[in-house]
Amino acid sequence: MSLFVQKYGGTSVGTVERIEAVADRIAGFRAQGHDMVIAVSAMSGETNRLIALAQAIQSTPDPRELDVLVSTGEQVTIALLCMALKKRGWDARSYTGGQVRILTDNAHTKARIQSIDEANMRTDLSAGRVVVVAGFQGVDEQGNITTLGRGGSDTTGVALAAALKADECQIYTDVDGVYTTDPRVVEKARRLDKITFEEMLEMASQGSKVLQIRSVEFAGKYKVPLRVLSSFKEGPGTLITLDEEENTMEQPVVSGIAFNRDEAKVTVAGVPDTPGVASRILAPIGAANIEVDVIVQNVSADNTTDLTFTVNKNDMQKAVSVLEGVAKAIGAREVLSDDQVAKVSIVGVGMRSHAGVASRMFTALAEDNINIQMITTSEIKISVIIEEKYLELAVRCLHTAFGLDAEPAESSTRG
Ligand code: ADP
Ligand code: ASP
Ligand code: MG
After folding, report:
1. SS3 of 390, please?
2. What residue spans define the domains of the chain?
3. Nearest atom of ligand 2 to the alpha carbon of 9
4. Per-residue model confidence (pLDDT) at position 408
5. How far apart are CA 30 and CA 395, in angstroms?
6. N or C: which end of the chain has fewer CB within 10 A?
7. CATH superfamily entry for domain 257-401
8. In whole angstroms, what is the distance from residue 301 CA to residue 294 CA?
9. What is the pLDDT of residues 162-190, one digit of tens each?
10. Distance 374 CA to ligand 1 centre (A)
11. Residue 47 near ligand 2, beta carbon < 6 Å
12. Cα(124)–Cα(20) distance, rounded to whole angstroms?
């Protein structure tokens, strides 16, 4: 008998029929004698609908009230799922984040989990009940409702599994595992049996939204066995694994390709090339709470240089306004911006032991006439910023160039 924490995403609980199907699946595990703790998302589209309501009233909604609003989506699905379980003869009890007492900091809309009170869940499990917890939410010290950032139910699932020392945390979604790249974009994407935490973390941070990045960080830190599976069909899914040695041996150089359409580029042109200038440009950006991703500074010509960096598309206008004043103060020529860019990243622990990966990437892009605007690398990743309209072409061509394409027969296995 095992203890499983299962998380079901928005599409998996998107309709009453889907909720009934999830209840059947959970009932199957209970019938085998397993203890079950479930985290659920809101029905698909619901969180977006609630955010749109808020924005119809306040363009930048009050963060505390936004959390009160968007956390209601998950309160609907926990109750419906418990009803469906009871209908099947299995006792179940629903909990909001606050009722469990998933304690977070007070950073509304992007709160971090600090601790989880296990007491109520343990009592229910010993009484044979299925515990159903609202994903994506918690409470701060003062009892204010908080939420964990978009996709945050993944993190609820992993945090519950860590707190309860579950045998496995199973993330049920609408694809049957982690693929070499988003299978909705590349037909020939292939499901991976295993991927290392390190690679999954890099994939998530470079834009693969199959798992929220914090959930992967959490699972790595607390060594939670983590698996991604489909709620629509049976299958082994993908195990996120710690045994990097074994994996590296048999692994290709590149394990996956991630991409992010949310980036925008800002350039401060004609910057006097003197010490301290980069910090005078980037410090006010940080102070305005704008996250910077890729940064490139050109070689100086005539003692001036261009400094280019990327930010989230939503922050581009704000970054430009912040910099217009700064540019004048430091004697830069102008501030330019472009939101028609995207980032493509190749990820793989195999890169550590192979040379020439970057040139293979750049050659493949050149063969398709895709111009590279910026480049950034880490030990297990190379990212490029390109024109957004070439994004899908770039992902497909790199997928082929690094030997990731599935055989035609395999490509129909997704969930
Ligand atoms: P859920 O609502 O279950 O949390 P998400 O939409 O957040 O589901 O995440 C699942 C989606 O992630 C898939 O439908 C797929 O389009 C996307 N995705 C992006 N990259 C990958 C990848 N490498 N492997 C699998 N799915 C991916
Ligand atoms: N419902 C929330 C969202 O849409 C959390 C989640 O689904 O993980 O972001
Ligand atoms: Mg998700």
Report:
1. helix
2. 3-174, 257-401
3. 7
4. 73
5. 42
6. N
7. VC0802-like (3.30.2130.10)
8. 22
9. 999 999 999 999 999 999 999 999 999 99
10. 26
11. yes
12. 22
Question: pLDDT tens digits, residue range 79-129?
Answer: 999 999 999 999 999 999 999 999 999 999 999 999 999 999 999 999 999
Nearest ligand by distance to the CA of 212: 3
Identify residue 362 by its one-letter amino acid code: F
10 alpha carbon to ligand 1 midpoint, in Å? 11
Identify which of 175, 215, 261, 343 to mutate to test ligand 1's pocket (most ligand atoms within 8 A of the CB).
175
Q: What is the pLDDT of residue 251?
A: 67
Q: Which residues sit with their C-beta closer than 6 Å to ligand 1? A: 9-12, 41, 151, 173-175, 178-179, 181-184, 208-210, 256
Q: How far is the CA of 260 from the centre of ligand 2 (A)?
A: 18
Side chain identity at 247, as an amino acid letter? Answer: N
Q: Do domains 3-174 and 257-401 have the same CATH topology?
A: no
What pLDDT does residue 165 have? 97
What's the chain's length in residues?
Answer: 415
Assign a CATH topology to domain 3-174: Carbamate kinase (3.40.1160)
Which pLDDT value is given to residue 302?
85
Residue 408 CB-half CA count within 13 A: 0
pLDDT value of position 252: 82
Q: Closest-lying ligand to the alpha carbon of 155?
A: 2
Q: Is 136 in the pocket of ligand 2 (CB under 6 A)?
A: yes
Q: Which of the residues in the chain have pLDDT under 70?
A: 244-251, 409-415
Task: Compute, in angstroms, the gap from residue 383 CA to the centroid of ligand 2.
Answer: 27
